[in-house]
């Protein structure tokens, strides 16, 4: 074997597991494997997980915080306006450089697959060209999936649909949209129909920014579920954000969630951004704004957590840490039970991997040797500590390493150091 990791814990609760790697694949997983590795490391009971996956991101805007100015109101709409100010000034090389820097951060965080929306409401399609170049450059270490995203509205922005079609022809993977930003509810529903028909015709996945608003009557997710079912897009269709569901009437939602489940539509919440941007017009009580994650999960709807933004016109924080995303999602959704906290870990690993359609993902024989060794005994501790990534592996090669989190103490009669860990097994 090229590499053997001894005595690991897995996110499904198994402990004392060895993982043997041959070439770019996992060859064996089990207790006390007899295989010897050219290189062996002792996980010491720490968690080995498949890599983090971000199902919703905007890489064309990332790390542009403060350009050309800061979002003073902190609202979604000022963010969109600010991005509109920045767009004509975008230079391709600078955009590529910012995206490449973010991908460096992602690798160091064990984030090795990202679905990023890319704005197509610019006739030059400069950001599309730039992110296709980034996708090519990072392919050895990150699976980058691009969504053609008409930020200013498919119907509201002149030429947006033609640009979206051109972007798909250039190699963009997924059909995007933003129905709540169209001029009317009817136009929003029309955009959902057009986009789903286009996706069905081309055999593509569809992932719409859907109802990212506090308006309880913004119900494009209903249309998305309907069109998904009508056109046979089950399993290839995703509603991103769905924040209006937070504000909807409970009776209506009792009908809506089964329709989403029946249609096979996946959901992506973006906890850091939803808790920051939603409820901005409220005084008190102030709505949290994140979609109904536990209720969707209970109905069998796959729910992933996305990062959405890192240091861009909408959000001035973040560092590519999907454990920070899971941590916020857990709190906002009040998912504090043990099983619920584990679901939050899956929402940044296995669930988005399924939504993106990643092949051979997981810690099992035959899967890609892509993994993260965390400075934590299990998934809940990993979220609690936003644990250090001791080792990140891609296709059998170590691509990043970091020291575990430790602090020394100078206290009489107390230990010399702390690691914030409890020895209890998860
Ligand atoms: Fe987004």
Automatic annotation (TrEMBL):
Residues 39-399 form the Amidohydrolase domain. It holds the Pfam family Amidohydro_3. It comes from the Bacteria. This is Amidohydrolase family protein.
